[in-house]
Specification:
The chain is built from 12 helices and 9 strands. The chain is an alpha/beta fold. It has a 9-stranded parallel sheet. α2 links the parallel β1 and β2. The longest helix is centred in the last third of the chain and has 18 residues. About 0% of the residues have low confidence. Tetramer of two alpha and two beta chains.
């Protein structure tokens, strides 16, 4: 079911002649109940796939907004097991929307690859993006994932040349996450024309759908990326709603704001007809 659920999301989008919207939020930011409501709001307003951040003390790819989100989640004592429990709760009413855990190797390694893979499968996880675990080092994790059909989703960048892309694609499944800028999340905005050839190469070499993220915040930016990619990933713009809710004390405004943004992005992406 897990990888198939991701494939089905892309198939539905392809039938609608559009790209998919991948929305990110940090689990436990500002608390787990708000995260659950946000998951539902994203799903109800056009998010095709949801990336759920697992908070970690030493992130390397996260920009300031997501770093702060991780710190808030950690302050709320959110653990990897809490992230899994949150997904299991979501799965009680949703067996369709793919959920991807995005995080770092240390918590997964600490839990144990086998134990994590089994727990993720039972919770209803479809795959993971482990930012700091390169293809050369994730063999043991992939072996455990294979038992449950979990996807290993890899990152590529504008500096990933074709020979390296072949290694990145080796053992990957679900989709390929193309980082549009050489930097952290929320940093700047890429020129779609400058990376279009890279995305075409990534799709050709991997045989997987390619989703573009980092630096995409607005409907206009999402629409431009939808012209060249199979999916568009938006993270920091959603997380900023959680930050505003935390600062104001009105936690309900986080899922509400995320839902509105998801609707705007979904509409913008749907406006780009794909062959």
């Amino acid at each position: 079911m897990p990888t198939e659920r991701i494939t089905a999301a892309f198939d539905r989008a392809k039938a609608d002649k559009r790209a998919v919207l991948v929305s990110y939020l940090m689990a436990g930011d500002p608390d787990l109940e708000t995260s659950y409501q946000a998951l539902c709001a994203l799903r109800d307003n056009g998010a095709d796939i949801i990336e759920l951040g697992a908070p970690f003390t030493d992130p390397m790819a996260d920009g300031p907004a997501i770093q702060r989100a991780g710190l808030r989640a950690l302050a709320a004592k959110t653990k990897l097991t809490d992230v899994l429990a949150l997904i299991a709760r979501f799965r009680e009413s949703d067996q369709t929307t793919p959920i991807i855990i995005m995080g770092y190797a240390n918590p997964v390694h600490s839990m144990g690859y086998g134990a994590f893979a089994e727990a993720a499968h039972k919770a209803g996880v479809d795959g993971t993006i482990i930012v700091d675990l390169p293809p050369e080092e994730d063999g043991p994790l992939r072996e455990e994932y294979a038992k449950y059909g979990l996807s290993v989703i890899r990152l590529a960048t504008p500096t990933t040349h074709e020979a390296r892309m072949k290694k990145v694609a080796e053992g990957a499944s679900g989709f390929l996450y193309f980082v549009s800028v050489t930097g952290v999340t929320g940093a700047g905005s890429a020129d779609p024309a400058a990376i279009a050839a890279n995305i075409d190469m990534a799709r050709r070499v991997s045989g997987l759908p390619v989703c573009v993220g980092f630096g995409v915040k607005t409907g206009a930016q999402a629409a431009e990326m939808a012209k060249i990619a199979d999916g568009v990933v938006v993270g920091s713009a959603f997380v900023e709603h959680a930050e505003a809710a935390h600062e104001s004390g009105d936690l309900a405004c986080a899922p509400q704001g995320m839902g509105v943004l998801a609707g705007e992005l979904s509409k913008a992406i749907a406006g780009v007809a794909k062959p």
